[in-house]
Amino acid sequence: MTTIRQRRVGKGTEAAEDQPSEETNVKPDGKILPDPPGGKLWSILSITVGGIVAISLGLLTSVYVATLHENDLWFSNIKEVEREISFRTECGLYYSYYKQMIQAASIQQGLHGLVYDNKTESVRTINILERMNVYQEVFLSILYRILPIQQYLEPVYFYIYTLFGLQAVYVIALYVTSWLLSGTWLSGLLAACWYITNRVDTTRVEFTIPLRENWALPFFAVQIAAITYLLRTHLQPAQERLTLMAVFVATFLFSLTWQFNQFMMLIQALALFILDCLDMLPTAKVTWLYIIQISGLLLVCVLQFFNSMILGSLLISFNVSVLIARTIQKNLKKGGLLNRLGKLILHVLLVLCLTLLINKFIKKILNLESDEHIFKFLKAKFGFGATRDFDANLYLCEEAFGLLPLNTFSRLSSTLLFYVYGFVLFLLTVAAVIVAFRNLSGSNQVHLKDKMEEYTVTLKPDAAYSLVHTVLFGCLALSTMRMKYLWTSHMCVFASFGLCSTEVWKLILKCLHLYTSQRTQVIKYSIPIITLLYISFKFWPGIMDELSELREFYDPDTVELMNWIKSNTPNTAVFAGSMQLLAGVKLCTGRTLTNHPHYEDKNLRERTKQIYQIYAKRSPGEVHGILRSFGTDYVILEDSICYERRHSRGCRLRDLLDVANGHIMDGLGENEPDLKPSLYPRFCEEIKKNLPSYTMHFTRVFQNKTFHVYKLAKHK
């Protein structure tokens, strides 16, 4: 937090009148004085009311998103196959393992089927528990089987209600974090209201239910709340131990439920590293947080059968490097400004070099290449050279991995969230710069408790962490739209905390020479209440209209395709096609796939590129040979891909394949000079002409307005 203090010239240790409220009952020797009886009663009453409001808002949010999901699809009225089709792309793949566990003869057989799976990738047996983060589906399926609820609740409802229930945990965690930062539950109320009214930009759970982030982000929010409490001063040893345990459990659950956990926690570790270097966080607590991140990730690694991608993560290399570098540079926080800046630069370089060396060594030992597509994507995205790499371009051309659209800010501004956020961010950034400069130039004074009164502006550790956290995740969101949900939810917390903070308003009023204690309290409560009233009057009618709007799921072509597959193909049939569609094929029909949307495996990426030659300019014999090498019996062609118009030229799937194959692209426009015309027409177009060169390899067995299914001849 920020506050203004009078500079002292003596050595007195009395608390200044501007001391933050959390420290007012602290003796000079550090012991905490008991609250007066009246104050304690008021505190209990406030916590009780605040807790009830938090739980109520969490439950209301769950009901809200569940109602939106029902109204959008008429989920309770549509057929089972339609419900399953509504779990698009990778959502369907993850849900299929829950369904597989439910339908297994026993829990043991279900687990065996996941550990030795030969239906997700044809001609290969893979361990699903190692490759994918599906322990939540396993746990939920076991829970459904052992609880006496089968007669009252269908498996799909048990699944989606659990995800909607986690939204309650999410909102409560955001509420508590804002409450801890500001000291008033009014701040939590405002954070929760902003989260709900900005739902389009804070969550997508109602239409992408099984996505890994919808499982993970509630636990990440709980972890941030626990870290916020941990960074408070004057915690009792028992409180600190319990909080560390809460941080560990939340970190473990977050890591277990999302494959991108290591990248999110790497950003978190960078925030801790920056603040520790600037002497703005207690080093001992930061060390514990590094250790918790490493131990949580290693425990997940064990549960995922020693997944090499986890062992080779940058997070583990970075955290280990920081701990090693700190051991080497023991006097990092001593000396004058120039001395400390020099040490700091060396420290950063040492950590960076150690991280790269350790990470390269681990990847060399493990022969790890699972995450290379991510670094290729990042290299191309940030302009470090053009690439023809198919996987990197596949990400670059997706809107979700592009820059954050500008209309996001207009939506966030309509609720006043972005305006308040920008104001608080500017104020606390200025305060952080002042505090960081004084910490670095304070020489030995930073180690003496009585000398801390010399500072005119302070930033409490929990507020400092929240500031750097929101800045780093803001940068991530601006660069990659899909990651905005990590930023916008914390934006609600950060803005509401600043608007309800005594210390923030005290700093502003003192700078304007208008400070009085009474005026600060009036503003602290009146501005948030006015904001809440504005949000309520402006957005309540829209929310009611949204809840009254009824739609219905309608995708007859896909339903027809799935029903045909179930009725007209053997259970052992192998299907090839787009990643997104095949996830639905597995869920709805249980047939074997050649490829799928879980892209974190090098062999699968190479296989997918080969399968996608059905949309490239290749001969029928070549395509048949590729498909049969993966055991394919049927191939599904989609007109929406073959004649794609959603992306511009250069980003259509067929264009990416042409460039990767060295062929010029279709349509008007420039081509790179070394690209050559293909000797063959586009396979997905030419096969529909039923020419002899195609019919000798492929026989059309199903067709509707969207899909064409061909059976492969099995001759050599």
From TrEMBL:
<keyword id="KW-0808">Transferase</keyword>
<keyword id="KW-0472">Membrane</keyword>
<feature type="region of interest" description="Disordered">
    <location>
        <begin position="1"/>
        <end position="32"/>
    </location>
</feature>
<feature type="transmembrane region" description="Helical">
    <location>
        <begin position="522"/>
        <end position="541"/>
    </location>
</feature>
<dbReference type="InterPro" id="IPR047465">
    <property type="entry name" value="Dpy19L3"/>
</dbReference>
<protein>
    <submittedName>
        <fullName>D19L3 mannosyltransferase</fullName>
    </submittedName>
</protein>
<keyword id="KW-1133">Transmembrane helix</keyword>
<feature type="transmembrane region" description="Helical">
    <location>
        <begin position="266"/>
        <end position="284"/>
    </location>
</feature>
<feature type="transmembrane region" description="Helical">
    <location>
        <begin position="215"/>
        <end position="231"/>
    </location>
</feature>
<comment type="similarity">
    <text>Belongs to the dpy-19 family.</text>
</comment>
<dbReference type="InterPro" id="IPR018732">
    <property type="entry name" value="Dpy-19/Dpy-19-like"/>
</dbReference>
<feature type="transmembrane region" description="Helical">
    <location>
        <begin position="493"/>
        <end position="516"/>
    </location>
</feature>
<dbReference type="Pfam" id="PF10034">
    <property type="entry name" value="Dpy19"/>
</dbReference>
<keyword id="KW-0328">Glycosyltransferase</keyword>
<dbReference type="GO" id="GO:0000030">
    <property type="term" value="F:mannosyltransferase activity"/>
</dbReference>
<feature type="compositionally biased region" description="Basic residues">
    <location>
        <begin position="1"/>
        <end position="10"/>
    </location>
</feature>
<feature type="transmembrane region" description="Helical">
    <location>
        <begin position="296"/>
        <end position="324"/>
    </location>
</feature>
<feature type="transmembrane region" description="Helical">
    <location>
        <begin position="243"/>
        <end position="260"/>
    </location>
</feature>
<feature type="transmembrane region" description="Helical">
    <location>
        <begin position="344"/>
        <end position="362"/>
    </location>
</feature>
<feature type="transmembrane region" description="Helical">
    <location>
        <begin position="416"/>
        <end position="437"/>
    </location>
</feature>
<feature type="transmembrane region" description="Helical">
    <location>
        <begin position="41"/>
        <end position="66"/>
    </location>
</feature>
<feature type="transmembrane region" description="Helical">
    <location>
        <begin position="463"/>
        <end position="481"/>
    </location>
</feature>
<dbReference type="GO" id="GO:0005637">
    <property type="term" value="C:nuclear inner membrane"/>
</dbReference>
<keyword id="KW-0812">Transmembrane</keyword>
